[in-house]
Write a structure and sequence with these properties.
With 444 residues, the protein is an alpha/beta fold. It folds into three domains: 178 residues, SPOUT methyltransferase, trefoil knot domain (Alpha/beta knot, 3-Layer(aba) Sandwich); 53 residues, no CATH class; 181 residues, SPOUT methyltransferase, trefoil knot domain (Alpha/beta knot, 3-Layer(aba) Sandwich), CATH 3.40.1280. It has 18 helices and 18 strands. The strands form five sheets. It has a seven-stranded parallel sheet, with helices on both faces. Strand 5, helix 4 and strand 6 form a beta-alpha-beta unit. Helix 4 packs across helix 6 and helix 11 crosses helix 14. The longest helix is centred in the middle third of the chain and has 19 residues. It is elongated. Bound molecules: S-adenosylmethionine (SAM). S-adenosylmethionine binds next to strand 5.
Length: 444
């Protein structure tokens, strides 16, 4: 395979291409490189860049130089697959690397045999303000970003890409196994690895790793990989289509979650703090959302005797044989609903069951002054505390200030594209549970 690299600074590649595995891959004739220096294609005294058109400052590389560079490479090595680098491109990932590597693998499975394999890769590395938009549109087979930050040029992105891409090309990396079990090759991050000495800085290698019991070590590694993935990179886990077995193992590292719907300590019309009525729809709709996302119990909180009696009637129906045969899945969901008469009683219930006080997270459609506001990406911070989690939702016009003020954490409001924010409590619960615990696999 030939890799052409079009760049302003070929000297940046000298050591990179002549070190370790990449050097050896060239010696083994698996790959060879063709470095094209843009200034070599200029006429005497011609600059490689032009000021950007329109208001503003900055320079971009001249389109005709990229033309010349690509033409020269393709004349020598045949049509190339052209990758441009830009912070606006598709974010580099293991999946993207695998897809690109597939294009270059000659021996493809029969199922893939339609795909043409390539043997000339052209990397176009820009500098300054980037590349004329028309050039990218015209030439780029792929535009890749290595992350949401701005570098001075495309040479480090090209090297990052090459490090990831080349190790997927057979024989570049020694043992195939060393690339198969790694983070991002499946839904899990890699398990923790240790080497001698047995004790380092007073820290010991876990006993099981040295036990010699391979089955037990494998199981321990799987468990540790699950724990690490969930606690460090839930975003990766939820997007990666894990199997049911992996989900179950990973769920063990997520602390138990509870939901309380407050029919007391809420704001009612006229900005007073008061009570609201329970509804049958809230009860079974929310119970179904809670069942979907693995909520251990859903509490309906009201100290009013008449409301408690309505709740009991509703629950009695769903727990009865009649309710069960009317709709079994609803019966299952509702069996986790617990009526309580106050938030304090709810917290006590959880503490008794879990042996730890729950971390109380309030929710609101409005902004509040709260010392600890979290967002929908804060699972790691919350879960690492190792305490059960209680999400509290208000009915009426939302939770009273004193409930929000006393909570450990406040979740940012849900927002759509408009200013409208009057969601029903059952919609808000479903949205929040999905943002917090939902799987959202990426199909690409
Ligand atoms: C200063 S940057 C241009 C940034 C551009 N004006 C923008 O805001 O999107 C110059 C060049 O560096 C490379 N580059 C910078 N950051 C990058 C990133 N995160 N991923 C890939 N390439 C990057 C690209 O080749 C880019 O054209």
């Amino acid at each position: 395979m030939i890799i052409s690299i079009i760049t302003v600074f070929p000297e940046l590649y000298e050591q990179f291409l002549n070190t370790s595995l990449i050097k050896r891959a060239q010696e083994k004739r698996i790959i060879s490189f063709n470095l094209v220096k843009l200034s070599d294609l200029c006429q005497p005294k011609e600059r490689i860049d032009e000021p950007v058109c329109g208001p503003g400052t900055g320079m971009i590389i001249k389109p005709n130089l990229i033309d010349k560079a690509i033409e020269a490479c393709e004349k020598q090595y045949g049509p190339g697959y052209k990758i441009f680098f830009s912070p606006q491109g598709e974010k580099l990932s293991q999946k993207l690397l695998q897809k690109k590597a597939q294009l270059f693998l000659k021996e493809q499975s029969s199922h893939d045999s339609q795909t043409n394999s390539q043997d000339h890769l052209v990397l176009v590395c820009s500098r300054y303000e980037g590349i004329d938009e028309r050039v990218t549109t015209f030439y780029a087979d792929e535009t890749i970003s290595i992350g949401d930050y701005i570098l001075m040029g495309g040479d480090l992105p090209a090297q990052v890409f090459l490090e990831g891409f080349l190790r997927l090309i057979p024989d570049v990396v020694g043992k195939e196994a060393s690339i198969e079990d790694e983070s991002f090759s499946g839904p899990l991050l890699d398990y923790p690895e240790y080497g001698l000495p047995k004790v380092w800085n007073n820290l010991e290698i876990p006993e099981i790793v040295l036990s010699g019991n391979h089955a037990a070590i494998d199981q321990w590694r799987r468990d540790q990989a699950c724990k690490k993935t969930v606690l460090e990179r839930f975003d990766w886990f939820r997007s990666s289509e894990p199997s049911q077995e992996i989900i179950q193992n990973c769920a063990k590292s997520i602390p138990p979650h509870y939901v309380a719907i407050m029919h007391t300590d809420i704001v009612i019309k006229g900005d007073r703090v008061g009570h609201s009525s329970v509804t049958s729809l809230d009860l079974h709709d929310t119970a179904r959302s809670c069942a979907t996302y693995g909520i251990k119990n859903m509490f309906m909180v009201s100290p009013l005797k008449d409301q408690q009696s309505i709740m009991r009637d509703l629950l009695d129906f769903w727990m009865s044989d009649e309710g069960k045969s009317y709709n079994l899945s609803r019966h299952t969901a509702v069996s986790h609903v617990v009526p309580t008469d106050s938030l304090a009683q709810t917290i006590e219930f959880i503490e008794k069951r879990e042996g730890k006080k729950p971390l109380v997270i309030t929710t609101s459609a409005k902004q509040h002054d709260h010392p600890k506001v979290i967002d929908y990406f804060s699972q790691k911070t919350v879960w690492k505390q190792g305490r059960p989690v209680l999400f509290i939702f208000g009915t009426g016009q939302g939770l009273a200030d004193h409930i929000i003020d006393k909570s450990d954490l406040l979740l940012v409001p849900i927002k759509g594209l408009t200013g409208y924010k009057h969601l029903s409590v059952r919609s808000a619960i479903a949205i929040i549970l999905d943002r917090w615990l939902g799987l959202n696999p990426k199909k690409k």
